[in-house]
Amino acid sequence: xxNYESKNHRGYHRDRNQRPYQDQRRARQTERVQVxxxxxxxxxxxxxxxxxxxxxxxxxxxxFVPGALTNEEAVVxxxxxxxxxxxxxxxxxxxxxxxxVEPRDSYADQVGGFELEHLDYPAQLAFKRDVVAQAxxxxxxxxxxxxxxxxxxxxxxxxxxxxxxxxQVRRNAEGQVEAGLYAxxxxxxxxxxxxxxxxxxxxxxxxxxxxxxxxxxxxxxDEEQKSGIVKTLVVRAAAHTDDVQLVFITNSPKLPHKRxxxxxxxxxxxxxxxxxxNINPGETSLVWGDDTRHLAGxxxxxxxxGDLTFKLSARAFLQLNPAQTEVLYDEAKxxxxxxxxxxxxxxxxxxxxxxxxxxxxxxxxxxxxxxPEAVDDANANAAANGITNAHYEVGTAEDLLPKWxxxxxxxxxxxxxxxRTGLDATLIETILAIRxxxxxxxxxxxxxxxxxxxxxxxxxxxxxxxxVDMMPQTARCEAVVKLTRRQ
Length: 487
Hints:
- The chain is of the alpha/beta class.
- 29% of the residues lie in helices and 29% in strands.
- It has an 8-stranded mixed β-sheet with strand order 7-22-23-21-20-17-18-19, with helices on both faces. Strands 10-9-8-11-12-13-14 form a 7-stranded mixed β-sheet. A 6-stranded mixed β-sheet has the order 1-5-6-4-3-2, with no helix packed on it.
- The model is unreliable at 1-21 (pLDDT under 50).
């Protein structure tokens, strides 16, 4: 491992030596800038940042302006002052970008998930490729200047795609039940009676259930009082089977008026095929609790991806965009280029969507996931699809993969699809130690992707990066990276 360690940390030593000088220079610049909240000044937007905000410079200090687009000229108003940057809002636009469009959702500038709805779709796709380039420029993995960054694969109709609505539920000052999302940087709930990016059936069910909660005078959770029961509503629809699952996330196991509520759901919402309750007591930043209970209908819904069917329990992860999920997984299969007889590890496997799609070629598929229900679903999905050469276990990739290697299993290929935090350092060490000939990285966060590539490119060459737009109207970008082992 000595050779790996020296290569792995080469870039970090360089950064550590340079950073004090960079910090001193920025500090001197900041000392000269005196700005107050509420101050207004003209600003030209030079580029867009990774969160979809416009970025300009006031006396060499970066200014982040949500809703502003590249090359626009605006008068902005400072909303917060930090040591190295300012945040501001648009007061007035003097010069408008030709790519600016009118958002379909009136609240698009208030809540997350609509950061780019004011930007035309071709420009959104170009932005997402640029986000990958920005991340690479920041972390500078080996050879990044020559990477093949392919144009982002988008949708014909970039609306009505989200298969899951997960809305907080509260009562407003007038006592009306509302369901929606929090305003940016706050816990102020914005009621969403409509939402253009959701599959229509999810909003139909959501608004009908909100009306039922109001009619039955259900005890709605109050964050300040830390009392009440119904916290969150989750509606998930299967695009290819018409199944719909409704989950009540509650503060306690009790669900008053449960019988009347379930009767109304059965009578008024026949499209709902599964009703579940998830219990998440107390004040917590986590939406889901560990205890999920069956209330009515089936315990899971079924979705199809390609030729395979997948069972989805309440907490099981599935990409939010069914149409683009098939595009993403097809790109992952293409990049992996698995040959008959080769073995593959499906890390961060979820319900097995990627690994099971490879089973018809692979000699063996092994996968892991930390959520037990998802592992149960993955193994059940393998059985339901007649797949006998795939097996999934509960645990982290960084724990299970070394254990499998110690037992004599050395995969020919690995596909990783980590959360936004990226790969665990131990998993990276294991990958570089066993050196599978093929490696595909499916990323939902270009920043952690670029950071991980600094380590991975010690032994792997990036063949190309294919960005895929899984979430139109947002700044989120997925990417499939094909890596091949250096000889």
